[in-house]
Amino acid sequence: MGSAKKTSAAAERRAKIEELRRQERARERRNKTITVAVCAVIFTALAGGTGYLLVTVKGEEQKEDKKQDTARSTPIKGEKTWDELSRNHVPQTVSYPMTPAAGGDHAQAWMNCDGDVYAKEVPQENAVHALEHGAVWVTYNTKAPAADIKTLKETVSKTPYSLLSPHPKQKSPITVTAWGKQLELNTASDPRLATFLTKYVQGTQTPEPGAACTNGLTT
Question: pTM for the complete prediction?
Fold first, then answer.
């Protein structure tokens, strides 16, 4: 019974994420289509035809879909990648080769990552377990201004499979980390932040897609 409930909850979370992605793709496609349609109407009025309008709009929609597929498969500028990371559950503290940790051996329990915002630093071993479940871990240090931290809190709290916490030891003001992926940012307004979240929240790099981001550690 418990297993069935967990499976159902995971399916609901995946559906919510896919719906958010679908809405974003639809919004981008709609804006693109409106722009093309307006231009096409002007051209049609001058050329005296309607077929061109339909063909142009459909063609631009297909181009936009292809563009988005390419974006998902193209590395984000500045991101770092680590392959073949170990995935053992260990009771001890782990020395990770990157800061913040982006994968490797980790604790048995994961940090809650259902849009959770933590005011204090969290154990890396538990955060890495959340990454294994497909979460994106957003961190910041003392260089990040209060306005940026506020933006990060708002963004993460609306994003399933994500968590936010301070990380004093990292070099950049803001860092976003997924399993085997990491990107350093100077400001929360950097558009690569949204790109990273869209691409790696439950992305193809996830070792355990659909695994829970609830019922883990909260402090």
Answer: 0.74
